[in-house]
Structures are given as C-alpha cells and as structure tokens.
Amino acid sequence: MSQTTASEVPDLQAVLDALDDPDCRSIIESLNEPKTAAQVSEDCDIPTSTTYRKLDLLSDASLLAEGTEVRPDGHHATRYELDFERVVFELDDDRNLEVSLVRPARSADERLASLWGEVRKEP
User: Fold this and answer.
1) Structure confidence by residue, pLDDT tens digits, 46-86
2) CB 98 within 8 A of CB 92
3) Distance between CA 23 and CA 39 in Å, rounded?
C-alpha cells in the first residue's frame, strides 16, 4: 500500500465531483475485479454512453486504472479497476483542504503496464 506522491496528487475538485456522483459511486462499488465498460454498464444498469462518461470522470480523478484486455480477434478492450484503497482529505497548515489516495500495492509488471497505459495517452 502506498500513499500518493506530490507528482501524483489528484485534483481535489475532480475527486469531490466523482465521489459526489451516484453513478460513479455505483461503479466504484461494482469494481471488485477489472471490468470492461460494457460489463460495468450491465452490472450497474447504467446506459453505455453514460458509463463511458462516468469512467472518464473517475479516471480523471485518479480513482481508476485502465488496462488493455487483449482479444484473439484483434478488437482489444479497455478494462477498468480501482486504483485506490482509501481517499484521505486533510487540512494543511494554511487550512487548505488537500486530498491524497492510498494506492494498492502493485507488482513490477502491474506498475509497468500502468506506466505504458499513461504513455499511450500522451499526444
């Protein structure tokens, strides 16, 4: 288990917005294992287009990790999983609200896959 570092600090408002959304909370509760957007949509009974928007909201808040499910037919799918164990809100010395995430421990392979996913997102 690791705490977020300064370079990984999530945006406070993005985290608050995601956690304030009932669909996002439903998605968080359903992600007991990595799932595709279609699986999340079905499990949470949320329309697919809405599911993608909510997954983006959760990803932008650094609450989800994205991985790729390689399929034999060549049509790969993105799989989503929780990327936190705890969300911590605290006041700093100047009375500013801060947020940090306690992340699950990851193997070297999982960290490399996550890093590769971030590199692929770069323009």
Assistant:
1) 999 999 999 999 999 999 998 887 778 877 888 999 999 99
2) yes
3) 14
Residue 80, burial from CB neighbour count under 10 angstroms (0-12, 13-18, 19+):
buried
pLDDT at position 93, please?
A: 92
Q: Write out the DSSP string of 27-53.
A: HHHH-SS-EEHHHHHHHHT--HHHHHH
CA dihedral 102, 87, 19, 46 (to 10 degrees): 30
Compute, in degrees rounded to 10, the torsion defined by CA atoms 94, 95, 96, 99.
110
Give this prediction's pTM: 0.76
The domain ranges of the chain are 2-118
Region 2-118: CATH code = 1.10.10.10
Indicate the residue type of 24: C
Through-space distance between the first and last CA atoms of the chain, rounded to whole angstroms: 31
Q: Give 69's strand partners.
A: 77
The pLDDT assigned to 67 comes to 85
What pLDDT is attached to residue 72? Answer: 81
